[in-house]
Amino acid sequence: MAALDTTRTTTGSFGLVGRIGATFASVVSTVAEWNDARVTRNVLNDLTDRELADIGLCRGDIHQIVHGHR
Hints:
The protein is built from three helices and no strands. By secondary structure, it is an all-alpha fold. The longest helix is centred in the middle third of the chain and has 32 residues.
């Protein structure tokens, strides 16, 4: 699982370099979230129906789990 620390605070104006850094951090965060969802979807899809039932899921739940709706 990827992690990106976005809790740092700054004082004053970001300036051009700060805005570029914030944009880069946003892009990296978006890509990391997409990759986590992709990996989760692939792992859950590889499970058998019996294995999914053992953890209390069915195939129809995968989309909701991947997108955090559950």
